[in-house]
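Inputs:
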Amino acid sequence: MTDPRILWAQVARAAVNWKLIAPLLIAVEALNWLAPASTSTMLTEIAILALFAASLNLLMSFGHMVSFGHAAYFGLGAYGFTLAVVRAGLPPEAALLAGPMVAALGGLIFGALCVRLTEIYFAMLTLACAQITYTVLFQWYDFTGGDTGITGFMTPRLGLSEAGYASFALWTVVLAVLALWVIVKSPLGLMIRAVGQDRARAEALGLGARKVQLTAFVIAAFFAGIAGTLYAVLHGSAFPDYAGLSLTLDGLIMVVLGGLNSFAGGIWGAVIYQLLSTFVPKVIHEWELVLGFVLLGICLAMPHGFVGLLKRLGLGRKGGK
Amino acid sequence: MFWIQLVNGLMEGMTLFLIASGLTLIFGVTRIINFAHGSLYMLGAFMTYELVPLIAPGTLGGFFAAVLIAGLAVSVLGVVFEMLALRRIYGADGLMQLIVTVALVLILRDAVRMIWGPNSLSVPMPDPLMGALQIGQSYFPLFPIAVFAAGLVVVGAMIWTIYFTRAGILLRAGTDDRGMVALCGVNEKLIFTAVFAAGAFLAGLAGGLAAPYGEVNHLLDTTVIVSAFIVCVIGGLGNLYGALAGALVVGITKAIGVMYFPRLSMVLIFLIMALVLIARSMGRQGGSAR
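Outputs:
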């Protein structure tokens, strides 16, 4: 794996449809620089949540591990970064690395416990782990600032303009999603999918199911941590809610909305969900109520989500899984 | 202080057990984890808030009647949800089923916020249960003891129903092998609906019983469901006695833990859960792995 030629071969084999994606990215980038600053902030948030949903999707669609506590790693990323600045006194630029590292470490500790269980028990345990993270962040006033969070410790966005930071976040997210895509297409990704589809058979073939699942868990936590770090930098603050249950549910909804069992599902879902949650509450006050009914409708009538709809209309990537 | 917290812990454990037992029963038969179970609990609390002033306010009988009616109302709502939504996705992917119940969580939370507003409400305690029992130098608050006792009655009724009635036989048969039950000519759908009704009733009852002893607001749903999940992980899903033991352990640990480690009581519960999981996967039973 260390040989750069092998790594490059993997990237090349991952076969991303640049003809489709490049114009889209350029369009987003143009919108970012031309539109007002509030649009740039919205674009940044969409990009960050797309990465969060994509990392959750790695677990759900490929590993068939339903995590009910993925926000914990988003929160750990945000707090890892924030605390590295506030408590360890690192310059913000250097602390950027600390966020994902802390999230991955949290993923390693919780994941080691969670992968002992499967299916519904796994989901319950991930939820419990996330709530414990949340409670610690919420209650440990001396270290994490408790329920008021930590604010005002740095200039938001590292001193960049809204559009400048949006651009930075966008390309970081693109790189991260690309890395996730390469992982899905790599031998490791195949192992994750094998264990997800038929654990017993994968074990019979000599794969250590728990080890593979733990690896997937740590990777997903790492990328969620990147998203959390980007979010903390965007607002220059960290709150316990970043690790809260509602963000976890948001992530799950994004993945289901976009479509399970497809790589793009989580990303599309995040884009749609974020756009809806920005504009719908301005029209209808009871946004969660609407969302609940939409979700019910999707589950009962359209179980493959938005990507499934695209495929049915013949717009999806051919033969894509 | 210790005794007060112990009694509080017993009460919280009992309400947790009522919720977790509903989760466990529903899971046993339908293989669905009802994520909205905490919302049903919350709804039971709000119904009790509405009913307590209406039925002989202040008296013991009035309070328990209000709680009972609240439980029945929640049960009716559960049946409606089961028949309209859940019934259509029994064979579907486990995640889809979870998401459908998550949708119910969102709907109920916003509906509650619309009807009762975002602020916490308080339910008056029945007058005879206001005080505390004094034994020697220690005080035992009456209300938690009464709730614990009421919970014990429910547990007794539940065990009697499960082991000595035809409904209980069908429930156990459905848990063991639902295909076989259907082959025997029993209407499978009816069992599912009945179990869901019973689970929702228990959740509503728990919400009503606990309502006077804390705040009633729209955030109850998630705090309760997380505790119930922890109870189920400790006790093992589908294991009623495990759920009872797990619920009491969690309730008492929470209450006593607050005295000694006010900031860390959740961490303590997490440690217990981790120990249970590690001990279990070392070979006591494989039940949790499947």
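Remarks. Residues 183 and 238 of chain B are 23 Å apart (CA to CA). Chain B touches chain A at residues 27, 33, 85, 88-89, 92-96, 98-100, 102-107, 109-111, 114, 222, 226, 229-230, 232-233, 237, 263-264, 266-267, 270, 273-274, 277-278, 281, 288-290 (CB under 8 Å).
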